[in-house]
Description:
By secondary structure, the protein is α+β, with helices and mostly antiparallel strands. It has two domains: 3-72, no CATH class; 108-317, Clam (outer membrane lipoprotein receptor (LolB), chain A), CATH 2.50.20. The chain is built from seven helices and 15 strands. The chain has helices at 3-17, 40-59, 68-72, 108-119, 122-126, 190-199, 201-211, and strands at residues 26-28, 31-33, 131-139, 144-152, 156-162, 167-173, 176-181, 184-187, 212-223, 226-235, 240-246, 252-261, 264-278, 281-291, 298-308. The strands form two sheets. The chain has a 13-stranded antiparallel β-sheet with strand order 8-7-6-5-4-3-15-14-13-12-11-10-9. Strand 6 (167-173) and strand 7 form a beta hairpin. The longest helix is centred in the N-terminal third of the chain and has 20 residues, at 40-59. It is globular. The chain starts with a helix and ends in a 14-residue tail after the last strand.
Amino acid sequence: xxxxxxxxxxxxxxxxxxxxxxxxxxxxxxxxxxxxxxxxxxxxxxxxxxxxxxxxxxxxxxxxxxxxxxxxxxxxxxxxxxxxxxxxxxxxxxxxxxxxxxxxxxxxxxxxxxxxxxxxxxxxxxxxxxxxxxxxxxxxxxxxxxxxxxxxxxxxxxxxxxxxxxxxxxxxxxxxxxxxxxxxxxxxxxxxxxxxxxxxxxxxxxxxxxxxxxxxxxxxxxxxxxxxxxxxxxxxxxxxxxxxxxxxxxxxxxxxxxxxxxxxxxxxxxxxxxxxxxxxxxxxxxxxxxxxxxxxxxxxxxxxxxxxxxxxxxxxxxxxxx
Length: 322
């Protein structure tokens, strides 16, 4: 398993079983001893990983269709039989004759085009030479700190999250990227580089139209009581995404990505709101990120300042030595 997938995979397994890290790892004086081998749950987890890999290899050509969540569904011990009394099955309704034609939707490309025009248009976006966003970072548990994102076209970005007990830096340039925490610096996988570039509002706007090889509207759903077009998109790296655009105002309100790993497909959801005009281009001033992490299922970036066309040091995007 690549280093960059280790922690996301650990969080995915924790959320799939509805447990915390201490379920498999030994804890001493409030700190995890990740190297300790004296918990049977840790060995059981390894056995289950091997079982899931074999099921996917034998039945799904190696694609991660079956995962921990398939059986556990948020419970430490899978439920192997229905709970009694079972719910009475509803009768199958009779087939009704088709009264009207199925609803028609706009094309995926036209929905994306409308979004670009709504936030200011391609010409206004392409005039931006840099974008620096600063503000507050808040976790689901209420912990807060500072957030900073520096973005330079076409594909360079630096991100800093700083809390009293946690600090993470990430940088990307072209097709390479890195992440640094208290555990050290690691290289990001190609998909993680693309995911980071598309998670930052300015680079997302800049790359949105040319990022997808396919985009089709599959239906409508409610997002915060507003109708939204659902756009199923395939990136040029063959990764799937789902984008939600407000039907009334055309703004992008949600984006879901899916990362295949050896333990399953890990989703990440980004909700965007509070769009404001900055020098002729609209930016979301609130971004909530939801991940498969039972310890911290979501976090919110609330921007206090967005500055355009200011000097950004190129060294910000380079991987630190340690």
